[in-house]
């Protein structure tokens, strides 16, 4: 998989399925590490809906692209975000290898992606839709009942 093929794949998923819903805020702190964490959190907007249905072969190809030289930072971030949510052995292995020597400026991003992938791999992360089903609470329900967020 090339960078162009990766972006073509991702853009097709966005067009066909949309993006994964998320709620985000802004982190206002001059500390570069805090800003890096905020950037990682905001990068969840890159996730296509049904990211969990991406075939393992495609995840493995993304992992190989992540490890290639000369790949743009924005491509690496998008790949890491998808791999972080895969939880597959292929995703975990690629993130472990990349996190050993990430490109300068991507140290925190790669560490957070690896941590998140380990959570999915170990079954300790839950998708927001699953959480909503478990609690049967939505923002609309709270608003209709006069609840405060």
Describe the structure.
The protein is an all-alpha fold and 149 residues long. It has one domain (3-122). The protein is 62% helix and 0% strand. The chain contains 8 helices and no strands. It has helices at residues 3-17, 32-42, 56-67, 73-84, 89-100, 107-122, 128-135, 139-144. The longest helix has 16 residues, at 107-122. It is globular, with a radius of gyration of 16 Å. The chain starts with a helix and ends in a 5-residue tail after the last helix. Mean pLDDT is 85; it is low at 128-139.
What are its keywords?
149 residues; mainly alpha
Instruction: Please provide the count of β strands.
Output: 0
Along the chain, the helix and strand elements come as HHHHHHHH
Which percent band covers the strand fraction? Answer: under 5%
- Please tell me what the overall shape is: globular
| C-alpha Rg (nearest Å) | 16 Å
Q: Which stretches are low in confidence, meaning pLDDT under 50 for 5 or more residues running?
A: 128-139
What is the structural class? mainly alpha
DSSP helical segment count: 8
Report how far apart the termini are. Answer: 44 Å
Largest sheet: none
User: Overall pLDDT, averaged?
Assistant: 85
Report a brief summary of the structure.
The chain has helices spanning 3-17, 32-42, 56-67, 73-84, 89-100, 107-122, 128-135, 139-144. With 149 residues, the chain is an all-alpha fold.
């Amino acid at each position: 998989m090339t960078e162009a093929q990766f972006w073509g794949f991702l853009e097709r998923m966005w067009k066909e399925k949309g993006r994964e819903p998320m709620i985000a805020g802004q982190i206002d702190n001059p500390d570069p590490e805090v800003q890096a964490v905020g950037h990682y959190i905001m990068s969840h907007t890159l996730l296509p809906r049904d990211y969990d249905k991406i075939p393992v072969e495609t995840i493995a190809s993304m992992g190989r692209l992540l490890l290639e030289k000369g790949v743009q930072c924005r491509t690496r971030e998008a790949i890491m975000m998808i791999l972080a949510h895969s939880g597959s052995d292929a995703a975990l292995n690629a993130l472990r290898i990349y996190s050993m020597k990430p490109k300068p400026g991507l140290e925190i991003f790669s560490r957070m992606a690896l941590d998140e992938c380990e959570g999915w791999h170990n079954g300790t992360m839950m998708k927001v839709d699953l959480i909503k089903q478990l609690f049967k609470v939505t923002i609309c329900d709270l608003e209709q009942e006069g609840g405060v967020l």
